[in-house]
Design brief:
75% helix, mainly alpha, 5 helices, CHP02448, 101 residues, DUF2388 domain-containing protein, signal
Amino acid sequence: MNRLPSVAALALLCAAPAFASSFAGTTAGASSAGTSASSGSTSGDDKLVHEAREDAAGFVASDGRLRSARLEAALRVLREREPALRQADDMTRARAILAGR
């Protein structure tokens, strides 16, 4: 009956490297995403707009009160790249992001 704490400790020790590698993968991914988004390429712009979907949802849900740097960058990309959205307001652009533009 005393084996339960030992099994739990062993499970935690085995899981620790998985958590560390998961964290390392997350930070590496964030770093490479920043590099490609800043490269000025169309695919980097597309990725930036796609990654702003959650921020766009918050913006729409808050009736325009919640803004983030990522959302602002995506709105700027849409304003520059999409002729139909050049004269649109930020709420329309945020909805376009949510629609997958």
